[in-house]
Amino acid sequence: MANKKTRSKKRRGKKDIKNFMPIISGVAIIILAVILIQAFSSPSAAAIVNGDKITLKQVDEYYDRIPEQLKMLVTKDQVLDQLINEKVLLQEAAKHDIAVTDEEVNILISKAIDQSGMTEEEFNQRLKDQDITMGEMVGYYKEQMTITKLLNQTILSETNTSDQETLSQATQLYLSQLKSNSDIKILMESESEEETLTNLEMTETTSNAITDCLSDYNISSSTVVFIHSNYCPHCKAMMPIVKELEDEGYIFYWAESSDQEAQIIVDACLSEVMSGYVPQFICPSTGAEKTGEMSKSTLKAFADNC
């Protein structure tokens, strides 16, 4: 009898373990689900683009690099939108196996240093002054060159025209289509209306300081400052558009990175609104700015409001 009882207990023990295992599995699934939900809805996430997270830290770091006075003109919502655009384009580039090597980036940076007229030490000091490491510089250019390769191999190669406005419109349409086919979740809270109004009020003070400074160099408040570099492909794309608008009567001041006189003026009058990226267009009378390649109509509208 003793042996039978022992065997009976063993059977009950095995039955209990079998019944308990589904319970453990169920709990594990629930815990895993909670972990995944927390990972994708964490306050640290500003947005999720096709499963890839853009963190609040990334938005803050990007925004913190913007000069204090320029922050009055740029919202974190705009920064996030820019990061989303770049994420969508980089994801599409990966689908096409498009990539840029460190060597390609280093060649471009070397050309930039040569054409700027700066020594390598002066260039590194400029990066240090802007709180940018060489690794960050390489990473930024690698992403921008990857996006350029993608556009050249896709939409731009299919657009049989050299008209910059048409190309810009085609690029914007391409980006819009990519975004509409993407799963984009915005988790970051939008800037309040009160904060926006405060920024607009502070902008007036900035624009007055800019116009007063530029007047010392005989540059009128209606002039649009075109900050650019001869080695920048986006800058080169904007040059014929700027010339066309000049022929139509618009006034631009060309501030090229290797032009020492222009750099003196930029450093003296516009350092507070410099984004650190080119091409950049600045309107002295309003303190407004636009950075990046754009269509002729967009730049014309910007100049009309200047």
What's the number of helices? 12
| Main pleated-sheet profile | 4 strands, mixed
Q: Flag low-confidence runs.
A: 1-42
- Order of strands side by side in the largest beta sheet? 5-4-6-7
In terms of structural class, how would the helical and strand content be classed?
alpha+beta
Strand content: 5-15%
Whole-angstrom Rg: 27 Å
Shape: globular
Describe, in plain words, how this protein is organized in 3D:
The protein has two domains: 75-186, Porin chaperone SurA, peptide-binding domain (Triger factor/SurA peptide-binding fold, Orthogonal Bundle), CATH 1.10.4030.10; 193-304, 3-Layer(aba) Sandwich (Glutaredoxin). It is built from twelve helices and seven strands. Strands 5-4-6-7 form a four-stranded mixed β-sheet, with helices on both faces. A three-stranded antiparallel β-sheet has the order 2-1-3, with helices on both faces. The chain is an alpha+beta fold and 306 residues long. It has helices at residues 2-41, 56-64, 76-95, 102-116, 120-129, 134-153, 155-158, 164-180, 193-215, 233-247, 260-269, 296-304; strands spanning 45-49, 52-55, 184-186, 224-228, 252-256, 280-282, 289-291.
